[in-house]
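Task card 7
Instruction: Convert sequence to C-alpha cells.
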Amino acid sequence: MIKSTIKYLLIIGTICLISYIWYDYNRFVSTDESLHIAMVGPISGSGAIKGRAVLKGINLYIDELNQKDGIDGKKVVLTVFDDQNDKVQALEKAKEIVKQNKAIAIIGHWYSSCSINAGTVYKENGIPALTPGATNIKVTDSEWYFRALFNDKSQGRFLANYANKVLKHKTAAIIHEDLAYGSYLADIFEKTAKEIGIKIIFKEEFKTKSENLDDSLKQIVKNLHKKKRRRKDWRNCIIFMSTHATEGIKLVKYMRDMKFENPIIVPDSLASKQFSQGFDMYPEEKASPGYYTDGIYATSPLIFDTANEKAQLFKDRYREKYNEEPDWISAFGYDAAMIICEAIKKSGVTGKADLLKEDRKRVRDYMASLTNPNEAIVGVTGFNYFDEKGDCPKPISIGVYKFQNSISALTQLKTVPNINEISNIDSAVASGRVLHVDNNYMYKTNVVYTGIEVVEITELDIHKLTFNMDFYLWFRFKGNIKPENIKFLNAITPIRLNKPVSEKIIDGINYRAYHITGMFKADYLPGSYAFRQHVLSLSFRHQELTRNNLIYVIDVLGMGLTHSQSLTNKMVQAKILSPTLNWGINNVWFFQDIESKTALGSPEYLDPSGGSLKYSRFNLGIRIKKSEFSLRGIIPRSMVYEVTFISIAFLIIFALIAKNYTSKKYDSYIWFIYTFFALMVILSSEIVLFDWLVEKTSSYNLRLIIMTFDVLWWLIPAYLLNLAAERFLWMPIEERSGRSIPKNVRRIVAGAIYTLAFFGIVAFVFNQKLTSLLATSGMFAMIVGLAIQVNISNVFAGIAISMDRPFRTGDWVIIGGFEEGVVTDITWRATRLRTRNGCILSIPNSEASETSIHNFSYPDDTYWQYFTVYVDPRHPPDRVKKILLDAALSVNAVLKEPLPTTRYLGLNEGMTKLSKPWAANYLISVCVRNYGDKFIHNEAVWTRVFEHLNNEGIELIMERKDIQINQKIPITQTEEFLHNPAEMLVKLDLFQSIIFEARSYISHRIITHELKAGETITREGKPSISLFVVVEGVVGLWCENEDGEMIEVDRVGVGSYFGEMSVFTGEHSYYTSITASKTKLYEIQKQDMRPFVEERPDFWCFVAKILAEKYIQRESKKDKDFPDKV
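Output:
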C-alpha cells in the first residue's frame, strides 16, 4: 500500500512539474505565440548609462504588462541589440534585426546619427521604429520612423529664445560636436540667435572620433578664454554647448577649472545622470556636490518636480524595482514601450510569423493615426501623439542644476496653442504674462517651488472622512506674483494664509513660509480610493493665476527628496499620525496636476475650446490603512499567477489523495499541505481576480469582490478547522474507542465553529455590533443547554475519557466505590463493566470522569499480588525466606521478570494490613499477568507455599488461645521425606506400583546434589540417563523456539521430577534444566531402575500416559508467546 501511494505521489508530482514548466515556458520563454519587439541602443561603451536607463524603463513596462497576461494572452518578448552609439554598428544591428525577422517594431536608437543610418534599413523592410531620444530633424524623414519627444529644430530655437527673452543675454559662444545631433542643433541655435539679436562671438567644432579629443577640447576652452579677455561684453555672454554627455563633462570641467563664471546652457543630451554624475571622481565635486554643474541650464522633455501623478507613481515603481532614482530617459523608455504595445494591441496584430509584414504595417498605421491629444496615449511623460512628420509635440521644459539635481527653472516658456484664447494679446505682452518668441506667442510661466512639512494629523474621523492637519507650507519664487494667494480645495472651512512665520529675499529669490492648521476632507483626490484604505490629502491652487502663468512644483531640494530615504519612511519616523488612532501610513506622494474650472462666460476667457480655466494644482497624498495583521499582499505580484496555478493544481491533487489513497499515517501531513495550498489560493487568486477586473468594472463591484474574499477568509479557515477536528479529534477518538462518534456531536462542534465564523463575518466584515445577536443566541443556547444538561455532561465526559484513555475495553478496573470488573463497552453516555459475578454494571461517564480510577491493565496487563505468611518464629528467617521464594518461583504464572521477592516483617503488627504480633510475618510479592485470573494465581501461590513449607517440616500457624512455646518441635513426615529417600519414592506417582524391595534398592543408590541458583543440570539435545527429583528449591525447564530464543516452558518444585523422557524413551534431553534458586536434587540413574521395570507392562502403560500428558502440556507452552526469555 505504501509503495503504491509513493508511486502515485511521484506520478502526480511529475505531472505538476511538467504542467508548471509548460505554464512558465508559455509565460516567460519565447514561443510562436509571443509578440517580439526589439530595442537598439548603447548598452556598452561611453553612452551605456543612457542606453541602460532606456532599457530599464522598457523592461519595467513589459514586466508589468506580462504580469497581466500580456497582450490578448500573448506575452511580449524584448530582444536587445547594442549599437554602442556608433552609426556603423547601428547599421549592422538593423540588418541583424531584419535577418532574424521576428520584431514587430523597434525602440531606438539613441544617437541621431545611429537612427538616421539604421532608418534606411527599417524603411526598406517596412519595420516601424520609435526613438525615445534621437532629436535630429532628419530622423523622422522616413514615414516608418517616429519620435517620442520634440526635435532639435524646436529645441534649438527654444534655447536661443530662452537665453534672450528670459535670461536676457545679448551675446553667445557656441561649442559643438561634429555629429548630426550637435552640429544641427548648433546651426539652429546660431540661426535663431541672429534673428532675435544675439551676437555670436565664438563658435568652434570638435571631432568626437579624434585621437586627440582631450587636447582638442582643452584648446577650445583656451581659445574661449582668450576671447574672454579681449571682449568688454563678455560678462553678458552665455555659453551654449551642443554635445553629448561624455564630451560635455570634459568641457565643463575645463571651463570651471579656468574660473569661467558665465552661465552655460545645454540641450537635453546633458540633462541626464550620465552628465550630472560624471564629475563624481573629482575632489572638488566630492567636497561640494554640484561644484561643476550648479547653475547650468538644460532643456529636458520631463522634469519630475512638475510632472503629473502618473510620473510620480512611475518614479516610485522604478525606485522599488531598481533601487535608484529614474531620470527622464527611463521615463521615455517606459512610454516608448507603452506606445508600441498599445499600437500592437489596438491594431489587431496577430503575432503569426507568416503575417509579420502585415502586422508591422498595422502598427505603423495606428501610430500615424494618433494625431491629436484626444487620441493620444497618456503616459508618464504626458500625451503621446504624432504630427505629420512623426514627431511628438511635447512641451520643452528648462531645468537648472542644483546639487547635482535638475530642477525646474523659475521661469518656463509655454507655447500659446490658440492666440484667440487671449482676449487682449497686446495687454498680455505688455504685462509680461506673454512673450513674443520666434514669431509665436509663449506664456511666461512662473515656477514656484512648493514644499510641505506635516507636523501632526489629529481628529481623524473615518466615518465622516475628515481630519485635522498641522503643517508648514513654503514657497520659493521670483517676481511679485503672490503665490500665497491660494485656495485649499478640500478644506472644510476656508483657510487664509496670514503673516508668514519666515520671509526672506536672497539673490532675487523670494522665500515665504507659513504655519497652517485646519480641517480637511479625506479621499478627495480623484482615483485615490482603495478598499479599507483612505487618502488624507491637501490640494490647493492659486486664486487668480492660471497654469499658463504659474506652476506650483515640488521643492525636491527643500524637502530633501533627493536622498534615498522615501517620503513614507520620513513621515512614519516623524510620527505625524498617532499610533492610538490604529491607522498607519502606507504611502506618501506629492504631485502637481491641472484643475479645470468653467469661466462662466467671462469675455476674457472666451475661446473655441469652451472657455475653461486651467489652474496648477499642488497635491499631497498620504495613504493610510488600518494597523492590523494581514496576509494580503504577502505574495509578490510578480508571482501571483504562478502561485495561483500551482496552488489550485496541488489542492485538487491532495483532495483526490485524501479521498482515495490516504492512510491514517499520512492524514496529518495531508491536512497541513491541503491547508497551506488552500490559503495560497485565497491569497493569490484575490490579486489575480482584482487585477483582471480593475479596469473592467466599477469601484463598487471591486468592493463587492474584496468583501467576498473577506467572507471567504472566515469561511475557508472554518472549513479547514472542521477538517482538523475530523482528522485530529474524531478519528483518533474513534480509533482508540472502537466506536463511531455520534453525528450529533460532530454537528454540534461543526456548528460552533461555523457560528463563530458567522459572528466574525458580522463583526469584522460588515462592521456590525454583536451585542443583540449574542444576547439572543445566548438565551437560546441556555434554554437548550439546561434541557439536555445531563446528556451533554455525559457526552463530553465520554469524549474526555476517549481522549485521555484512563481505561480501554478489556481493562480490569475499579471506578470509585463501584465493584471491580472488566470494561466491556464505552459509549458516549456510560461505561459498562462486567463484574466477577457476571453482571453488567453501567456507570455514567460524568461520574467515571470525576472519580478515582484504579486500572489493573494499564500500562500493561501485569500486576503485583501480596501474600502474608504466618510462621513459627523459631525457624530461621533466611531459611523461611528461601523456602517461600522457591515456592513463588515454582508457580508457572509468576513472572520471572520482575523476580518475586520475600521479606521478613518480624513480629510487628501493622507492617501490612494482615501482619500479626503472634507470629513471624513474611511477605511474598509476585508479579503476574491478567487481573481476571487473580483467584487462580492466589490459589496456585498458596498451594505451592503450603507444599514447600510442609516438605521442610514447617507449618503455617494461626492465632490460638492455647499457643505453646519453647517446646521441641516433633519430627514430621515431611522431615522423614527429606531424610529418607525411600519415603520420597513412595510419594512419586512413578514408583507407587513398584514393590517395597525395589524402592529400597533404588533409594540406597540415589545420588544427592546441592546446586546454586543458575546452574545447568541437563542440556537440550544432549543425552541424559538420569531422573531428577527436586527435594528443595526450583528448577526451570527451557527450550529453543523457532526464532532461536530460549523460552521457559515449565517449572519444577519440591516433590516434582524431570528427565523422565530421556530415561524411559532413550532419546536426548528435550529441555535445558536450570536451577532458579539454591536447589537440592536426588538423581536416580536409569541402570538402577531397569531390573525392576523391564518386565512390568502395567508400569510402562502408566509411564506412557504420564509422559504424553507432560509432553503435550510443555509443547503447548512452547508454542505460545511466552514472555520469559534468556
